[in-house]
Amino acid sequence: MPIPISLTRHEARRIWMRAQGLDRPAPFGGGADATQRAVEHLGYVQIDTINVIERCHHHILWSRIPEYRRAHLQQAQSTDKSVFEYWTHALAYVPTRDLRFFIDDMRRRRAVPGSWFDSVTPEEVRKLLGRIRVEGALSIRDIEDDVLVEKDHAWASRKPSKRALQLAFLSGQLTISAREGMVKRYELIGRHFGWDSPPRPVPAARKLDYLLDRALRAQGIVSLDSACHLDASRKAGLRERIEERVARGRLVPVSVAGAERVGHWACPAMLAAARVEEFAGEDTVHILSPFDPLVIQRKRLELMFGYTHRFEAYVPKTKRVFGYFALPVLVGDRVVAAIDLKADRARNMLQVQQWNWIGPQQATHSRLIEDSLHRFEQFQFET
Prior knowledge:
Layout: E1 5-7, H1 9-20, H2 33-42, E2 45-46, H3 56-62, H4 70-79, E3 83-87, E4 91-95, H5 103-111, H6 122-135, H7 161-170, E5 174-180, E6 183-188, H8 189-193, H9 204-219, H10 224-227, H11 235-247, E7 252-256, E8 264-266, H12 268-276, E9 285-287, H13 298-305, E10 326-331, E11 334-344, E12 349-357, H14 363-381
Helix pairs in contact: 1-9, 5-7, 6-7, 9-11
């Protein structure tokens, strides 16, 4: 094995920021097409229901596309059909070009639905599919003939059809053709995409290559944990793919200061480029979602930025440190604050619930962050 290339945390985090499109203004350009380019580069954009402020899928895209508008994502999903929804480590928008890499996951879900769907019968699924085939795409709100049941989980519905829709979606029979807020409209997947026949599933080795390529593109430097986030079952196979690429000189091992015992790898060309290219975002401010790809992997964030993020929405109020929905704030390549925000939709204002400085602050930080907060406020409440 080659001797690992040593990187400081400073170097490592700048490489990661560049891979994330957070080192320069408008890395994906402007206009509606920028949304497709951003999702394809990042590999996926997480969806979450929490709406204390703008929901995270819109927030993540706005952080990288200054001209982003919610209608751009709607266009990509429902008109251009360049993105689709499916499960990565969470429900997410995924590039449609990558759908073939999820066909096997869909088929496995159809064969083994899991205990959450024990109450769903094949007949219920067939009935829903037949109704959508005749009536067109529908949401759970369109189903009014269900016999209501008691909820057995906080995320469940009193309408049994909801789980049948979810199962048909996860098993690849339905796709989400549109969203109205967080209300999903389900359509037959073949009809939505205009398929004569569905894409063929790819071999398992190609799926591993896809996951590795996705991580390298969006992270710059990868570890097994970062490439297999919440998917430990694929670590052994991914390690084999990494070792094969190292042997061919397509990847090189990297040692990140402070984590010398953790294996990291990168593409030689990317490392060479990173050492000659200037960092263009010294005074750039990014107010990040707690579900942003730069934040969601907490151990990696702590290693590279020296910042431990706390997501405290489910923490009792008396035990919160940063606040209910704290957002990390980057100035340049450092996390300098964590600000707990709340959208006051009645008055079209962002409320700062709590402002926590992280590390030493500079005189310019407050002004830069306040300017960015005003822009974020305008995005929140634009019509």
